[in-house]
Amino acid sequence: MPKSSAPSRDRIVAGAADMISRRGLSATSIREMAKHAKAPLGSTYHYFPQGKQQLATEAVRYTGDWVARSLRRELEAGPAAGLSAFLDLWRRIVVESDFHAGCPVLAVAIEEPPADEVPPALAAAAEVFELWESLLAASLREHGAEAEQAAQVATLVVAAVEGTVAMCRAKRSTQPLDHTAEQLQSLIAAATRA
């Protein structure tokens, strides 16, 4: 993920997103997130007085918005171009981090929440996944897919890419992305031909 050069809140959020993408939420303390962002711990608590959950929530939203901006731009050329950009974005992240980083949204989503509670970071992760799905589904509909099919394909794309990123990290290879890309491109081509 891009690192903010701002010496403030934005840099702390970007650093937290990067740290969560590497270690997950439970294995990362707010102190470590501040250190990773090269920010004083006091500043971190100043910007995030509710602590780790507030910072994690902002990190998830930051990632969601960053990916959504890229998707919106690339989807102007159609769903196949959007899919390629989505896959390329995650390929860059796993390769440039030497397979140490993945998606902080997924990392937060798979954490075990406290009983009878939906933490704000988990709720933010659900919103981000829905945003990515809605962007993809809208593009699919604009290019000929029926509404229900567009929604299902969009969900499948997001789920497949997120799972594939995890597989790439585990296998230390981009081969899962290559296989997934080919199949998803075929699926999008079939959906938009209808």
From TrEMBL:
PROSITE patterns: HTH_TETR_2. This is TetR/AcrR family transcriptional regulator. It holds the Pfam family TetR_C_13_2. Residues 6-66 form the HTH tetR-type domain. The keyword Lipoprotein does not apply. Residues 29-48 bind DNA. The keyword Protein biosynthesis does not apply. Coiled coil: none annotated. SUPFAM superfamilies: Homeodomain-like, Tetracyclin repressor-like, C-terminal domain. Gene3D superfamilies: Tetracycline Repressor, domain 2.
